[in-house]
Q: What sequence folds into this?
């Protein structure tokens, strides 16, 4: 094993990168990066400024590097999710806004399907401040969950404002369930034995873990705190564990005691945004990427993220690495090597023109 776990391989030309998705077609690895905005000449630096009428670049892997091979229009990009239903391949994209200021947070999210060698729009959704999609299946039923919404003075929703879950009817997704959160950020699905869990993260309305009862999702546990960003579940030695990221306070590890999730460890303070769990020959690792502290009006851009290793009942910090307002991380295998791609969204000066990074994960 090398001295460091992460070896930088490539800087990806991105601007305000927010999320990543990867997949393979005809044995070729692809990567999509959605972007919030690009800098506008003469405009003061501001993390919620910029030109949001932008695209999501698509990359093709050649050797150990990615080469841009196309783009999809995604204004104010916040998420891209790749998934399959049978032999059909889809990309769900979402953006929080459109325009160059003032901005419109009532937009259209697009579901693309791979047809005839290209990504073609298959369905559009009326969304409001859309953040993240999450695709999952329970048995033969396929779902697509959308986290969305904000509570900002002067911003009115003309599109549906609550987060929602859609179900596939064979040709398109139709509304199945809504949740009354006002500032949704993410959904995360996990199956543990015969339990089907769906975690919802919300910035202002509190986050929750839902459980499937064969007919619908019902609340298993609430987390009544502001700042929720994401959850991750994993199993170790028969136990069910959960990690919850809160941007405003800390990242927390929980163990399920059979009835509820009980806090067991805190992993870093405020600023956490996203997680990536990696199972490798060296064990289980957790990558925690960090975004900002402070407020959107006076942010402090986080310049460092962390790698933790699972020790059997807790995580131990094993490495820190330089990032810049990081918003997402995704891991994949290519050949005999494992890689980690990290989306960086802001420079220390709050400019969007900052590269994202591809690393080799050497462990």
A:
């Amino acid at each position: 094993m090398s001295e460091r776990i992460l070896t930088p391989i490539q800087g990806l030309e991105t601007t305000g990168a927010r999320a990543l998705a990867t997949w393979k077609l005809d044995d070729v690895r692809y990567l999509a990066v959605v972007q919030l905005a690009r800098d506008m000449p003469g405009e003061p630096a501001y993390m919620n400024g910029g030109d949001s009428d932008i695209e999501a670049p698509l990359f093709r892997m050649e050797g150990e590097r990615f080469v841009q091979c196309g783009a999809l229009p995604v204004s104010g990009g916040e998420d891209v999710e790749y998934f399959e239903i049978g032999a059909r391949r889809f990309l769900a994209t979402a953006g929080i806004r459109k325009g160059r200021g003032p901005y419109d947070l009532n937009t259209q999210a697009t579901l693309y399907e791979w047809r005839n060698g290209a990504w073609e729009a298959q369905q559009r959704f009326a969304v409001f401040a859309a953040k993240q999609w999450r695709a999952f299946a329970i048995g033969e039923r396929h779902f697509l969950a959308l986290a969305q919404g904000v509570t900002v003075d002067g911003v009115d929703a003309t599109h549906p404002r609550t987060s929602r879950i859609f179900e596939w009817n064979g040709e398109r997704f139709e509304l199945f369930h809504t949740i009354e959160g006002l500032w949704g950020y993410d959904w995360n699905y996990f199956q543990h034995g015969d339990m089907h869990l769906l975690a919802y993260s919300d910035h202002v309305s509190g986050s929750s873990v839902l459980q499937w009862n064969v007919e619908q999702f019902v609340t298993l546990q609430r987390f009544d705190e502001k700042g929720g960003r994401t959850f991750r579940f994993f199993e170790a030695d028969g136990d069910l564990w959960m990690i919850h990221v809160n941007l405003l306070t800390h990242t927390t590890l929980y163990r399920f005691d059979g009835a509820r999730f009980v806090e067991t460890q805190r992993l870093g303070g405020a600023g956490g945004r996203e997680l990536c769990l990696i199972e490798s020959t060296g064990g289980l690792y957790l990558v925690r990427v960090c975004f900002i502290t402070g407020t959107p009006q006076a942010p402090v851009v986080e310049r460092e993220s962390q790698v933790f290793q699972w020790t059997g009942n807790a995580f131990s910090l094993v490495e820190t690495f330089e990032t810049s307002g990081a918003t997402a991380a995704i891991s994949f295998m290519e050949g005999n090597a494992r890689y980690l791609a990290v989306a960086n969204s802001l420079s220390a000066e709050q400019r969007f023109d900052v590269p994202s990074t591809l690393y080799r994960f050497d462990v």
